[in-house]
Amino acid sequence: MFRRAPDRIRDQFTFTFDGMPITASTGDSVAAALLAAGIRACRTTPVSGAPRGPYCMMGVCFECLVRIDGVGNRQGCLIPVREGMKVETQKGSHVLTVEQGS
Ligand code: FES
Fold it and tell me: Are 69 and 81 in contact (CB under 8 A)?
């Protein structure tokens, strides 16, 4: 569904999502890079565990929450992706994740 426009492929580098290498371009947000790589879900809901993914891409819906370099509740659509960044699925709420010790 999402595909990067050919003129937007520039200065590519790699970051990881759940340990998987993902190629991004300079200027991508974390959420845009994930969508361009075909990854639609980046978090699960605290109650049912249902998968969720970026929706508004402008910081309003909070559906794009991810863990970045060990820090939870980061809005992937607002954070520029960087080379070597370690992005992970946010499972449930960040508070629960911290209490579980991971
Ligand atoms: S996609 Fe809506 S806040 Fe990030």
Answer: no
pLDDT of residue 101: 53
For 37, the token pair is 């790589």
Q: How many CA atoms lie within 13 A of 82 on its CB side?
A: 5
Pocket test for ligand 1, best of 28, 29, 56, 79 (most atoms within 8 A of CB): 56
In CATH, what number does 13-91 get? 3.10.20.440
Q: Is 40 in the pocket of ligand 1 (CB under 6 A)?
A: no
Closest Cα to residue 68, out of 82, 57, 52?
A: 82
d(CA 7, CA 86): 26
CB 68 within 8 A of CB 90: no
**Model-level pTM?**
0.88
Find, among 40, 97, 36, the residue nearest to 63 by Cα.
Answer: 40
